[in-house]
Write a structure and sequence with these properties.
The chain is mostly helical. It has 2 domains: about 80 residues, no CATH class; about 120 residues, Orthogonal Bundle (Endonuclease III, domain 1). Helices cover about 65% and strands about 0% of the residues. The protein has 14 helices and no strands.
């Protein structure tokens, strides 16, 4: 695999200057900032990610105020009490996206947030304290204990809330494939660990957050 020096020089050549490159890179929140995010905002963002999957984001976003209303502003303590009959009634509400499987995921993910908070003090603490050098472990935990959070949903959710993570988009996977790391989206623990190792090396060499390294790697793919 190539080292960080190669990655940095490639991106500098593409954008022409360090200033131009930096302007294109995302940023992550600090641990303190992640702890300050309330449980209802984590649940709202998780639900938003679930409903965006496979749908036009602008369509989902336009309906989100109605989702906030029908799901009690995503208060996990209230949402977790929503039973089958309540969800069936929501299937008649034309203001929201009426997908029963996705609607069911909201109280189930509320339970995840409450369970984690019981063990770690808050869901924000849990997210903040998880080391980025094992971010794939966090993907696996949320995918296993949450609902409809498999595939790219968990890394995209983490990026949405500001947790530092790389995301194996098609461009990132194509760039990793070019270096012989993986040949497809890393879905197995083995492939995810291999990708984590690559990012950990670049992270150690550069001090850059994973989200920036992920973007830089995507920039190496020609369109």
């Amino acid at each position: 695999m190539q080292d960080y020096k190669w990655l940095n020089e490639y991106c500098l050549n593409r954008f022409g200057s360090a200033k131009a490159l930096e302007a294109e890179l995302p940023s992550a929140l600090s641990a303190a900032q992640l702890r300050k995010i309330s449980a209802d905002r984590y649940l709202s963002t998780m639900a938003l990610r679930v409903f965006r999957a496979g749908l036009k984001h602008s369509l989902v976003d336009a309906k989100w105020p109605a989702f906030e209303e029908v799901f009690f502003r995503f208060d996990p303590e209230k949402v977790v009490l929503m039973g089958a009959e309540h969800l069936e009634r929501l299937m008649q509400d034309a203001r929201i996206i009426r997908h029963l499987g996705k609607l069911k995921s909201v109280p189930r993910n509320a339970q995840l947030i409450l369970d984690v908070a019981h063990e770690h003090g808050s869901f924000g603490n849990f997210i903040a304290e998880w080391p980025v050098t094992d971010i794939v472990g966090l993907w696996q935990y949320i995918a296993k204990h949450g609902n409809q959070m498999g595939g790219l949903s968990t890394p995209r959710f983490l990026r949405m809330v500001g947790k530092d993570t790389f995301i194996p988009t098609w461009d990132v996977v194509a760039a990793l494939n070019a270096q012989g790391i993986v040949d497809k989206v890393p879905s197995s623990k083995r492939d995810q660990a291999a990708v984590q190792d690559v990012f950990n090396q670049w992270h150690a060499e550069s001090g850059r957050p994973m989200c920036q390294l992920s973007a830089m790697l995507a920039f190496t793919v020609n369109h």
